[in-house]
Amino acid sequence: MITGMTGFGAGEISFGKVKGIVEVKTVNHRYLDVAFYLPSGFSSLEDKIQKIIARSIKRGRVTVSVKITERPHTEITLNQGAVKRYLDFARALSHRHHLKNDIAVRDIMRLPGVVEAREVFVQPAEVWPALEKSLHKAVTEVSGMRRREGKALGIDISGLLKRMLLQIGLIKRRINELLKESRSRMASEEFASYQKSNDIHEELARLAHYIDEARALLKQAEGSGKKLDFIAQEMQREANTIGSKVQDKVVAAAVIAIKSKVEKIREQSNNVE
Length: 273
Fold this sequence. Notes:
6 strands; alpha+beta; 3 domains; four-stranded mixed beta sheet; 8 helices; Four Helix Bundle (Hemerythrin (Met), subunit A); Ribosomal Protein S5, domain 2; 16% strand
């Protein structure tokens, strides 16, 4: 069964005091194109993430977003040595100049080097096992959505192919009618020339063959999108040839109907992996 290219999945990251979320979104694209939105310092994980994505997704624009929502609080330390030196200096200054020593705690806290605040950074290597697990969950959800989309696309394309076969049958019947009419009113040489110029047997046979090929592609799990687009182009070519060879309103209407369905198949092929 073919696979679509639209999907979304998410997983929660939990590692000690570190909490976060990873989201994976995919839309249609000609090739596999992965874009990363990672926290600062996490770019070293791009290759690992890319490999996990590539194992499950072969085509599409993929956006991987990692957000750290909770992390360890900022560490605050008190430099006891600096505090002692400041206080000793304050007492000496007070004693020497007979000043009132009214220094308060808030004054000490404001002095350089007394309080040191250090931000705790999340290390990518430490978080990776939890992130990897969440990434696999997100990719599984994405793949599920893409399979369900592929099933819907397959049903739609199958219907278009079936209606194309009906138009081919109509064209065949109309050609037989035209040949009977022409044989009754044309001389032998004129009819032979008419029959040769209006012979579309090969075009109809190739068109039916391409329909069979397209049906076979719909049963494949992956890599069908580009092939389906190529087949649709060939269908369009055969339909154009039929329309140019046979100058008849009924045939022309059937050709237009076929080309309309081929165009829809081409549009849908852009959504198939």
